[in-house]
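Minutes, project huddle
Topic: does the predicted pose make sense with MRU bound?
PN asked that the exact inputs be recorded in the minutes so nobody has to dig through chat later. Recorded below.
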Amino acid sequence: MKVDGTPYRSIWLADDGYTVCIIDQTKLPHRFETTELLSVEDAAIAIRDMLVRGAPLIGATGAYGLALAMRADPGDANLEMAFKTLHNTRPTASNLAWALNDVRDILTPLQESEREAAAYNRASEICEDDVATCRAIGEHGADVIRKIWEDNGKPGRINILTHCNAGWLATVDWGTALSAIYVAHEMDIPVHVWADETRPRNQGASLTAWELSKHGVPHTVIADNAGGHLMQHSQVDLCIVGTDRTTAAGDVCNKVGTYLKALAAHDNNVPFYVALPHSTIDWGIHDGIRDVPIETRSPKEITHISGKTNTGDVKTVQITPDDTQALNIAFDVTPARYITGLITERGLCDASENGLLGLYPECAS
Ligand code: MRU
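Predicted holo structure (tokens), as shared on screen:
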């Protein structure tokens, strides 16, 4: 997607063919800065400290992290160490483990001399696959938006609520939930996005709003708690969110607060869709509430908040009393029964085992 007229992806290789370049997402929306990853440690820090985030982008960065490790030392011990270092960065998104396993399985049988080139090659394929996958999700998702808009009598705007950031910054390009919105916008469907601010890290207020404004998509940031009220007053035509891990039975783990939006949508008969690529499905888990590992992060993300001051400086301030404890749960699980449909690169399905297996029959165990 374009940033001030220049096309960008969220991750790319420098001209030297091995340095990995990313957008430092911790600086957005107030500063657009890119940074270089030169080692597996750099890649691990970028994932852990959320310079890159979003399930598909974490996977792509993990794959390039293994390539950087193989450049330094292609031996078996280093491959295992790099795998563990990257795997331990963030626990919830399936895509990281998926990409790391995929690259390691390719590298393990190879001679050491072949591993660096093979790792870069596979990381690049994972990125290209993600771009094509996300575009396809966007096309299927835009059909859903168009149908709801037509069924509603083509009003002057169709209001779509989204939570967190499931846009091109969360993937390699296009996004998942936002890809549907970008494609609908290309089709001249008058989309308007309600972007949940998504406390505590504000990915909605800072990243979704930034992406949409750079692309010229009408949007309004709302407090996380406002969605239910808007739904009660017919101000939301549908919700589309992304996911970090979807179980084989169709339960969806996504940024904390997604579940409450799904409950409000259910109570108000608002369609609730989840957009996802194949790499987000965890075929080994059926019960999302019991079995998805939920990341907890620093309480400081709750007790403090960052923003731009009147003088243009970016400052972090404390918003809680000095002696108040905070608990920072980063994700929650929305049971399949609250989900109207899953939007994948292969089309739409029910949020159920049969629905998913209908689209991915090769994954039947
Ligand atoms: O903690 P984050 O910013 O990595 O969380 C991201 C999300 O929850 C996204 O909604 C999810 O990764 C889907 S992105 C295509």
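Observations noted during the meeting:
- The mean pLDDT is 97.
- Residues 112-151 form the longest helix (40 residues).
No decisions taken; revisit at the next huddle.
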